[in-house]
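User: Teach me something about this protein's shape.
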Amino acid sequence: MSTTVKNKQNTSLEGKGQKIIAVRVTDIILDGTTETAKKYGGYDAVGTIFYTILENNTPLEEISTSNIARPIFSNIKHYPLKNEIVLILSSKDKSIYNSEGISTSYYFPPLNIWNHPHHNALPSVKGLKNSSTEQDYQQTENGIIRQVTDEGTDINLGNYFSELLKIKPLLPYEGDYILEGRFGNSIRLGSTNIGESIPDEANNIWSTTGNVGDPITIIRNGQSEKLDNKGWIPTIEDLNNDATSIYLTSNQRLSDFRVASTNFQSYQAKLELPEDLDTALTNPQLNIIVQPDPLPVQEPLPISDSPILESPSPIIEEEEPSPFDLFIANSGNISVTEIEDRTENQQVTPESNLSLGTSYKETDATGTIDIQEKIGNYFNLSQLIYSDTANNNNINNLPGIDNSPNSSTIIQNLKNLMINVGDKIYEKYGNVTISSGYRSNTLNKKLKGADNSQHTKGEALDIQIPGINTSEIFNWAVENIPTYDQIIWEFPEKGESSWIHISYSNNNRKDKLLATNNTSLQTAYNGNSIYTSITSADQSKVLS
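Assistant: First, the predicted structure itself:
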């Protein structure tokens, strides 16, 4: 007895009395915008396969069929490749509301023909063009493991999917739940296997500590490139050689772990997108992030000969702090609002031939400092650390003399500041003058700057441009500099003595502020204190 199942396209399939039958995939819709997809429902047709009955051993290129089936699962996208085998069944669909007797075929994920995640195609050997490949699969059909020797295949698996001989399945352990992709990516929900009752071959690589059943989750994105071409032999995860991995451990301790990168400063770093793809490829910008100083080594406490009168509290053994812990401990308050109402009167330009005062003396705390070192593209170090106030008050304003971080970190901060902020303003206006750059703690106190001023870290500049209103500089910087920490329109009521404070740090907040003691100007910007958040500066409000 045979039954005929009608699908929505009014094509028929002889199921020969079977409710579920095996078919070979001939094609699949993955793009809802193609003409074929539009014929069967557009985006609604994504995942729809075309198939032929498995008993039909005709090569795919010679098959002409309109038999179709939709995926049975809506929330699991496990679509087959060409020549893979799936099971299909028929059932009513949404057409039940306007038609009777019409059924749609649905398919299950591909059958496990080869017990391999990469592909499970069972092609018609009649359609293989390469005789060696045809022999490979004929041998396999006879129970012999397929061993490819020609480093290739002519199996039709899709429009661009190619068979990769090195892809291996994962070796399972008792109780494991494993999800494998086709390309050496996987998720293992496993556990520790260790103990005398467990054979050596069943002990897994994460079982150096812990107990049987301790859970572990391993996410692997790409297998090791060092694996051989025997793709049918299972493998296990390789912590140090897999492309990328995430290990979620419980009581395990991973042995021989090699850190891929020590660049842990990405914490709190801000993503800077290029203006366009061409710019990113032709003129890439490298933002250098400075390594923080390690925590100071504490001297051990002296051993006392005094008797212990009370039992001490239990000592909890702690592991050494990680690089991340050290970074957090040293970060402190990375960026602050500059509470100050003055800058220096000097006007330093790239052309300034400056003479640092005799107070600028190197000490053992700073090491060797090249004051003529280029900082960015236009200014040198001497121009960024020069100070009339320091010279007149015998203050040593070399980086790192009386503050932290050290000189090398401060100089690197100045480079980051100029490359990302200062150089861009100079390239726009050309006649930028710096009224205040780096400040030692002593100089900053003399200028009545904030205790934690970014000037003392080499992260801030006070700038003026002769003949240009500070409101114009403020608005241009806000609109054209992609990344900054703060831009402050400082005391515009001072007229030509007004300045722009601009800073750059690892915690770039893009704060836009007005600083003024003028109550009418505060009212005009709806502020009630010396600092007010603004979106743009308007010089006319200063003059009114």
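Now, about its shape. DSSP finds eleven helices and 19 strands in the chain. The first helix runs from residue 35 to 39. If you'd like, I can walk through any region in more detail.
User: That's plenty for now, thanks!
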